[in-house]
Amino acid sequence: MKVRGAALPAAAVLVRLVAQGLTATYRLHRLEGARHLDRALDPPAMLACWHEQTALSVLLVRRHLLPAGGPVSILSSHSADGELAARIAHAWGVRVTRGSTSRGGREAALYLYHELVKERSTLLLMPDGPRGPARAAKPGSIVLAATSGAPIVPAGFAVDRGLRLRSWDRMIVGAPFSRVAIAVGEPILLSRASTDTEREEARVEFGARLDDLTARAGRLLS
Question: I need a surface site. Which of 61, 100, 175, 191 has the fewest CB within 10 A?
Fold first, then answer.
């Protein structure tokens, strides 16, 4: 959604109200792996899904993460879309760190480390964002897990009715009153002493788990 300049504040309010109203109609058909989700609700932790499922993840954020009472954080890029997302997140009480892997990446990583270690936050993470390629986990999340000691809790989302946007990630937006299924997997833990080879293996495994959990969420709807 390309909105810039003076239109941004009004657009942020409109998108937030639409997202709140739409999410309120979603019916949580099945949540598998609730015991793993509990780990994400006990920060510091990272809850991860593919970028295409960002809109569906709002259901989990608003119904589970925020009511748990602990800080919730996201990384938002410096783009116009990132500014829009940041404004919406702030309105929901979510902490926002600005940056991306392409601009301000090192600084953003330091802020996220602070969010996890000092603020003891739950970080909502999309490892293939903000520009893709889609469903390709980048190494930053693995490095952050290893240096902070915070676990990555992977999750997959699926919806029975909706549409895909014409964005790079083909983001999924559920239709009103659609059914949503969520599959949460076992946390991924890395040691600070892990080698580059071990971290690369973890990155590949991380992406495979997100794919498997996404497929599992789809099967839960059938």
Answer: 191
Q: What pLDDT digit, counting tens, does each position of 88-99 carry?
A: 999 999 999 887
Beta-carbon contacts of residue 157 (< 8 Å; ≥ 6 apart)? 49, 53, 56, 57, 59, 60, 172, 180, 181, 182, 214, 217
> Which tokens hold the place of 134?
């889609």
Q: Indicate the number of domains in the chain.
A: 1
Q: What percent of the chain has a predicted confidence (pLDDT) above 90? A: 79
3-state secondary structure of 124: strand
Cβ atoms of residues 187 and 173 within 8 Å: no
Structural domain containing residue 36? 5-220
Q: How far, in Å, CA of 6 to CA of 48, rounded?
A: 32
CATH (domain of 189): 3.40.1130
- Asked if pLDDT for residue 105 goes beyond 70, the answer is no
